[in-house]
């Protein structure tokens, strides 16, 4: 158990979107702590609230239609949700940074890579133009872009997808943040480049002692990156555990489904078997019910699941699930 104070503590974070079709219950009262130097992964399928939770932390939810209804995000003793706009803008520039999924839409096509990376240095650290330019070359070199002194003059379209993502990482790290939020930063990249980006982030984390929130739909990519995993479904955290514990002892039906649909190359009975998709469709979050949101797709569902949504409960050291059923006793043959 970690005895130090959390770097960031999220409590009862709730975010909704008010649309013409109704109110979308995007994030529904999630809570967790993040410690200094720790990497956590937030996993789940598209629409489960992973990215909205991160944008809520950063106060980047478009309002309207979005609204952070309640909650606290305490970062180094300050509630980010209550900070004045200018103070929050400073936090985003210097203490918390975010890498987005598609670097092509995150980078401005009409400015050079060097200019865009230098902008936060001039804005937040008051660097001179010359000092900022020198620092940009150091940053591009740090993230593995060769011939950095020349590449600062390049435009985004002159970089490959992997190089653009490295440039985005350089921009995010420019002011040496304490927390890096990576929102599916490898989704648009091929598997070789994905592996390179993951290794780069691991190396930089060790060098800079950053905390990281890595958001992904792919449980496989975080196995060697994160210390702890939060599994989200329909805006709720449904399971949380240390990485090794989650892989060895998945205990929520949704987590089981995610792992069973993951290709395996290790030895044993799981290797070579057919992948099993999760049946059904994601829930309609416009009209939520009191039931467990996963119940319509769950092979373990009992009558209570259809009328009452469970809260997180501990089933082991640092391992919590939101489920009424012990899946290992219910059907042990499908667990792995």
Topology:
Layout: E1 8-19, E2 22-34, E3 39-43, H1 50-57, E4 66-75, E5 78-79, H2 85-94, E6 96-99, H3 103-106, H4 113-125, H5 129-142, H6 148-151, H7 161-173, E7 179-183, H8 191-208, E8 211-216, E9 228-233, E10 236-242, H9 243-248, H10 253-260, E11 313-316, E12 319-321, H11 327-330
Parallel strand pairs: 3-8, 3-9, 6-7, 7-8
Antiparallel strand pairs: 1-2, 1-4, 4-5, 9-10, 10-12, 11-12
Account of the protein in words:
The chain has 336 residues and is of the alpha/beta class. The radius of gyration is 21 Å and the shape is globular. Mean pLDDT is 86; it is low at 332-336. The chain has helices spanning 50-57, 85-94, 103-106, 113-125, 129-142, 148-151, 161-173, 191-208, 243-248, 253-260, 327-330; strands at residues 8-19, 22-34, 39-43, 66-75, 78-79, 96-99, 179-183, 211-216, 228-233, 236-242, 313-316, 319-321. It has an eight-stranded mixed beta sheet with strand order 6-7-8-3-9-10-12-11, with helices on both faces. Strands 2-1-4-5 form a four-stranded antiparallel beta sheet. The longest helix is centred in the middle third of the chain and has 18 residues, at 191-208. Strand 9 and strand 10 form a beta hairpin. The two termini are 27 Å apart.
Kindly estimate the percentage of residues that lie in beta strands according to DSSP.
15-25%
User: Which ranges are low-confidence, i.e. pLDDT below 50, for 5 or more consecutive residues?
Assistant: 332-336
Give the biggest sheet.
8 strands, mixed
Number of strands: 12
The ordered H/E elements are: EEEHEEHEHHHHHEHEEEHHEEH
Question: How many separate helices?
Answer: 11
Radius of gyration: 21 Å
């Amino acid at each position: 158990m970690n005895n130090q104070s959390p770097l960031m503590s999220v409590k009862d974070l709730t975010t909704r979107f008010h649309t013409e079709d109704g109110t979308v219950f995007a994030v529904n009262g999630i809570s967790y702590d993040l410690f200094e130097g720790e990497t956590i992964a937030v996993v789940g399928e598209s629409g489960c609230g992973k990215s909205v939770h991160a944008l809520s932390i950063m106060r980047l939810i478009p309002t309207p239609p979005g609204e952070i209804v309640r909650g606290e995000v305490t970062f180094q003793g300050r509630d980010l949700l209550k900070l004045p706009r200018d103070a929050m803008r400073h936090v985003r520039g210097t203490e918390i940074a975010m890498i987005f999924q598609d670097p092509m839409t995150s980078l401005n096509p009409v400015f050079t890579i060097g200019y865009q990376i230098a902008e936060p240095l001039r804005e937040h650290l008051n660097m001179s133009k010359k000092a900022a330019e020198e620092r940009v070359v150091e940053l591009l070199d740090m993230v593995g872009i060769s011939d950095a002194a020349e590449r600062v003059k390049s435009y985004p379209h002159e970089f490959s997808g992997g190089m653009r993502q490295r440039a985005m990482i350089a921009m995010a790290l420019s002011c040496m943040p304490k927390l890096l939020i990576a929102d599916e930063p490898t989704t648009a990249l091929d598997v070789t480049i994905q592996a390179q980006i993951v290794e780069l982030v691991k190396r930089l984390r060790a060098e800079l002692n950053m905390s990281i929130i890595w958001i992904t739909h792919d449980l496989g990519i975080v196995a060697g990156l994160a210390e702890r995993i939060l599994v989200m479904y329909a805006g709720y955290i449904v399971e949380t555990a240390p990485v090794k514990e989650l892989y060895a002892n998945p205990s929520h039906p949704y987590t089981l489904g995610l792992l069973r649909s993951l290709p395996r190359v290790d030895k044993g009975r799981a290797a070579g078997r057919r992948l099993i998709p999760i049946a059904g469709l994601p829930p309609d979050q416009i009209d939520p019910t009191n039931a467990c949101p996963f119940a319509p797709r769950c092979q373990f569902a009992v009558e209570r699941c259809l009328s009452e949504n469970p809260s997180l409960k501990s089933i082991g050291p640092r391992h919590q699930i939101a489920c009424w059923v012990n899946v290992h006793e219910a059907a042990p043959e499908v667990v792995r």
